[in-house]
């Protein structure tokens, strides 16, 4: 809904930031965090792109205050890659389907693997600055890549699933088109609605 109250956006921003920061600070499998899901949803839902692009930067900045800083070039790459999901989310406004959302999350996972590990290879003394060294760097990251993919896909599913449920119950929070939110929300709520009728 184009004229939804501003307070709704404030609540959405707060929820996205809190959950994404918590996912980085609480114990978790390597890479299994909600930053990508929060960023895609922010890009898709929030009216102002300038605000949406700030979400991943705020999440990383707040959590890094606790986790600590690291190599500047690598840190810059992490922050830059974190903004890309917002762009993807905005490109799906009015055209987000479950398949597109999953594909987008996986694309973000691959982009993160390729970009961040290239910078790790470039800045680290652990790997030779050769094609073999680069390959070793990527191979070393593969065992953790499954967690990154799972985290990205699960966080997208959680944020958009919650949106569908809330928009189904309270249409004032929805953005156009509302039809998909009603369809998704109705499908998600169907088992509970049936149990209430028994």
Would you write up a description of this structure?
The chain is mainly α and 198 residues long. The chain has a single domain (6-192), classed as Orthogonal Bundle (Arp2/3 complex 21 kDa subunit ARPC3), CATH 1.10.1760. 78% of the residues lie in helices and 0% in strands. The protein is elongated and about 55 Å long. The protein starts with 5 loop residues before the first helix and ends with a helix. The model is unreliable at 191-198 (pLDDT under 50).
* Nearest-integer average pLDDT: 85
Helix-strand pattern: HHHHHHH
What fraction of residues sit in β-strands? Answer: under 5%
What is the radius of gyration computed over CA atoms, rounded to a whole number of angstroms? 18 Å
Q: What is the count of DSSP helices, taking H or I runs of 4+ residues?
A: 7
Helix content: over 70%
Please give the CATH architecture.
Answer: Orthogonal Bundle
What is the distance, rounded to the nearest whole angstrom, between the alpha carbons of the first and last residues? 34 Å
Oligomer: single chain
Q: Which segments are poorly predicted (pLDDT under 50) over 5 or more consecutive residues? A: 191-198
Count of distinct structural domains: 1
Number of strands: 0
CATH class: Mainly Alpha
């Amino acid at each position: 809904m184009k004229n939804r109250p501003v307070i709704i956006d404030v609540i959405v921003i707060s929820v996205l930031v809190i959950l994404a920061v918590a996912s980085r600070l609480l114990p978790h499998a390597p890479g299994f965090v909600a930053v990508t899901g929060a960023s895609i949803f922010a890009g898709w839902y929030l009216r102002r792109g300038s605000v949406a692009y700030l979400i991943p930067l705020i999440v990383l900045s707040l959590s890094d205050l606790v986790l600590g800083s690291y190599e500047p070039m690598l840190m810059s790459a992490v922050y830059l890659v974190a903004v890309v999901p917002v762009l993807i989310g905005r490109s799906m406004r009015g055209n987000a389907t479950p398949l597109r959302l999953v594909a987008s999350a996986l694309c973000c996972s691959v982009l993160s693997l390729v970009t961040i590990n290239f910078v790790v290879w470039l800045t680290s003394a652990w790997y030779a600055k050769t094609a073999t060294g680069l390959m070793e760097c990527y191979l070393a990251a593969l065992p953790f890549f499954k967690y990154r993919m799972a985290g990205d896909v699960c966080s997208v599913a959680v944020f958009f699933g919650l949106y569908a449920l809330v928009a189904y119950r309270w249409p004032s929070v929805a953005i156009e088109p509302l039809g998909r939110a009603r369809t998704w929300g109705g499908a998600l709520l169907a088992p509970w609605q049936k149990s209430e009728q028994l």
